[in-house]
Structures are given as C-alpha cells and as structure tokens.
Specification:
CATH architecture: 3-Layer(aba) Sandwich
Number of domains: 1
Oligomer: single chain
Helix content: 40-55%
CATH class: Alpha Beta
Strand order of the largest sheet: 2-1-3-8-7-4-5-6
Shape: globular
Strand content: 5-15%
CATH topology: Arginase, Chain A
Number of strands: 8
Number of helices: 10
Largest sheet: 8 strands, parallel
C-alpha cells in the first residue's frame, strides 16, 4: 500500500530567500516527493482548516484568536521569529490540521506522514522558535478526548528540546513525551519532558545510533501506546546551521529506519512530522526531509 502523505501547497508562506527561516523547504520537499512518486500517486491528502475549538484545546484561546485575526502581540511575534501575517496564519493552521489528518490516517493504515509539522516550541500561551501552533499537541488531545486513543508516545528527535510540547502536555498522563536533543542548544530554559536526553555537541552517527538503539526498548517496557508521533527533524545533521550535532545523511537514514522499524514491527501506528532543518542550501534540507518519507514508505 502506498504511504499516506498529507501535504498542501500553502505550507510554504513564501518568505524572501534571505529570511533565516527556510520557508521554501516546504515547497521543495513537496517537489521532491512528487519526483520520487510519494505524492501524486493517489495516496496523498490535502488538509482543510482546523476549527477554533481544536486549536484552543492545546493553546490559550486568546492567543488562537490573535493568530486567526493576524493580530499577534509584537513581543510574541519576536519570540516566534516572524510576523504572523494572513499567509503565515494560514500555513500554521494548515500544517497543524495536516498533522491531525496524518494521525488519523496512521490509526487507519498503520503509518502516515505530514509534509510539515513538528512545531514543538509553540507553548500553550503563545508561539516561539519559528513555531506558531504545536501541531502534535493539537492532534493528540482530541484523539484522547474522543476515546480513539488511551496512550500516546511523542518521540522528538529534532536537535532542539521540545519545550512547547512538554509545556502543553505536562499535565496529561496519557501522553509520554521523549525529547532527544543537543543539550547546549535552544531553548536555554527547557521545560521538562517525560524523558529528556541531552546530547553533547558534535555527536556523530555511531554514538547517536547506539544511544537510540538502547533507548527505544525502554519506552515500551511498561506501557502500551496506541499511537506514536515521530518528530524527524533533520537539524541534527552536521551541516545544519542551527544544530550542534554531526549526523550524516546516512546517519539520518539509519535513524529513520531504526525508529520507524522499531514501532511498526511491534504493530504500533506511527505519524511522522518533519521538524526542523536550517541552512542556506534549502534544496539539500528538503532532500534530508524526504528521507523520512522514503523510509516510511517501506513500512507502509
């Protein structure tokens, strides 16, 4: 069966090329997935806008209203890293509902991916760190509320600690949040996850994969999870502008194979989101993100 992939042309909010957030990676990733036959094959899905209540389940209602009205406090916009214009608001909404859709597709098909998402710095009260809404938290909470899930696991392997996800879900006992990140990287003030693994600067493939190989079995020893969210940020790559680790392309590919294979071999549904990836060579970043989809397709 082809891999279900959620994507939308408006995931790209068309930032100027010199902007420090490489917005065009979403367009380039979409093009990569078309070329590789992973979308445009009848297995791709396009999200609709989410409703207010869904967003406000994870975020402060006043902040959600500001985003939807393009009236975010300038102090919060500075913390996010860009103004929340109409186009930015639209892409944040669609990327978030894309993860909601991908999560439901994963429950139906066993695995699915969103060609955006992983906005793990957005907290309950406001956005931060290039993240407007926290799509994984927005997706997990209604599924738990409606009884579709009893226990959720978030495996966040972005190079930055998942402070926003930890903040929103800290009082939700049905969600276990794991963040594996460069300890000295952003954010300076980290919000404790269920389990945080802070890594030293410069860690390369072999040590990283050995750590992950030991860690994954520990996650399923005491609890049966109904859905795994996998934030496959590619910013642990050695060439990433905002990363402090040193994985290669082959290391990222081995990471994806290890994580996806581990959970799918145990029959656990998995929803993949792309997370971070930064630098001037946006085409190379898009190709790194495409590794998630190529790997997931082998387990579909």
């Amino acid at each position: 069966m082809p891999l279900p992939v959620v994507s939308h042309a408006l995931y790209d909010a068309s930032f100027p090329p010199e902007h420090r957030f490489p917005m065009s990676k979403y367009r380039l990733l979409r093009e990569e997935l078309i070329v590789r036959g992973l979308i445009g094959n009848g297995s791709d899905y396009e999200p609709a806008l989410p409703d207010f209540a869904m967003l406000a389940r994870a975020h402060d209602a006043g902040y959600v209203r500001q985003v939807l009205d393009y009236a975010v406090d300038p102090k919060i916009e500075r913390e996010i890293g860009f103004p929340v214009s109409e186009r930015v608001s639209l892409r944040a909404q669609l990327a978030t509902s894309g993860t909601v859709m991908a999560a439901r597709l994963a429950l139906e098909h066993g695995i699915a991916c969103n060609a955006a998402g992983g906005s793990h710095h957005a907290r309950r009260a406001h956005g931060a760190g290039f993240c407007t809404f926290n799509d994984v938290a927005v997706a997990a909470l209604p599924l738990l509320d409606e009884g579709s899930l009893r226990n959720v696991l978030v495996v966040d392997l972005d190079v930055h600690q998942g402070d926003g996800t930890a903040d929103i879900l800290r009082d939700e006992p049905r969600v276990f949040t794991l963040s594996v990140h460069a300890e000295k990287n952003y954010p300076v003030r980290k919000v404790p996850s269920s389990l945080d693994v802070g890594l030293p600067d410069g860690m390369e493939d072999e040590a990283y994969l050995a750590m992950l190989r030991d860690l994954l079995p520990q996650l399923v020893e005491e609890r049966r999870f109904d859905l795994v969210f996998f934030n496959a940020g590619v910013d642990p790559h050695r060439d990433d502008k905002l990363g402090r680790l040193a994985l290669s392309d082959d290391g990222l590919r081995a990471r994806e194979e290890m994580v996806i294979g581990f959970f799918r071999e145990r029959g656990l549904p998995l929803c993949g989101v792309i997370g971070g990836g930064y630098g001037a060579d946006v085409g190379a970043i898009a190709k790194r993100h495409a590794i998630l989809f190529e790997t997931a397709a082998r387990f579909a």
